[in-house]
Amino acid sequence: MRGRLALWAVAVVLTAAVIGLSLLVTDPFPPRRIVLATAQPDGTYDAMGREYQRRLAREGLKVDLRRTAGSVENLALLRRGVVDVAFLQGGIYQPGEDPEHRVRGMAAIYREPLWIFYRGKPVTDGLGALAERRVSIGASGSGTEAVARTLLGALGLPTAGSNRLNLTSAEARRALEEAQIDAAFFVGSYKDPNISALLHRPDVHLLGFTRDAAFARNFPYLSPVRIPEGVLDLKADLPREEITLMAPAAMLVCRESLHPRVVEQLLSVARDVHGGGTLLDPPRRFPTREGVDVPLHDAADSFLTRGESWLSRVLPYWTLRWVLQLRLLLLPLVAVWFPLFKVLPWLVRWRGNRVIERHYALLREVEARAAAATGPEQLGGIIAEIETLRARIEGLALRLSLQHQRDLYHCRLHVSLVLAEARDRLQRLEHPVR
Q1: pTM higher than 0.70, yes or no?
Q2: How does the average pLDDT of the chain come out, rounded?
């Protein structure tokens, strides 16, 4: 019984060790819930966040949306580990500000142009016309503010002061419509309600970039987007002439430790949402690694290169979580219990043989003493020992397995033989022949 308990104890300890080792060297369980940072309410990122939330919920992954001022705040939240995933505008990430490499890119999901709307007469001298005007450069902490300050600063134009206002998209639209400001920067999709509304106003103009190649060379995260006449609204003929804008990529970014299966689920949704293309982007171009200026997550690199893993392709996320958990439970069974049950019969056989061999050794020793005994009293004591040994061997029949019963019967016969010989010799000692 002690031997069996020891064997089971070893098995339990080995199982616990294998599970612990699996947790250390393999991926932890995929989470049930993640936090996604979007941007200002009713903006493009906010609308996309709700769409991602709806689609991922069908797969069994709950998404909590965190509304923010925009890309700059999103990046800060990622670095602090407050959120798991975020939408980020290209050009915001600076490697020197992330020495611990806590942020990883997943994919560029579409291009979001920089829209600069202004009031008054049409201008042809580009951003220089905004030097002395009252301009909204985007909400504090937004990607719009970051790119606006970068471009204005590169041209030697003021980036701060009383004429530079930090208004949200909705506030900037209202201020521009009511002539409270002269111009406003927006970064977003043409589907953004604020951008769409300003495109339809005859008293508001859209500023184009005439030196798009120069801007693209100086700012690699910006790419030219040529918008043909009427492509955004055929009925209203918007824009009314071909215009070129500069566009950073809208990206999905995440924490470096985000589970690979979550990365695959997010990119699968991104492929479904953005793969069809838009009026500005051709079909099947997104998601892509092009335009991603953040080091790629390993799982994202694999997805964009070879596609999603087989498990993610054939199983919904909620089933995948159970499969990965069962894998951790089955591993000890395969690594510990299966070999143990293969070895267990051999251990049982070896242990039984050892017990029988030990009793044979005792029998041989007591037989030798019986043969050397010189008096009846001495031999009588030895016979008592042999009878005790026979009783012990008979008790082994209840303890040892069936495969040892034949050996036990042989041992009992041999004990009986030795006992009979000892009794015969005792009788001869007590009644010697005259």
Answers
A1: no
A2: 86
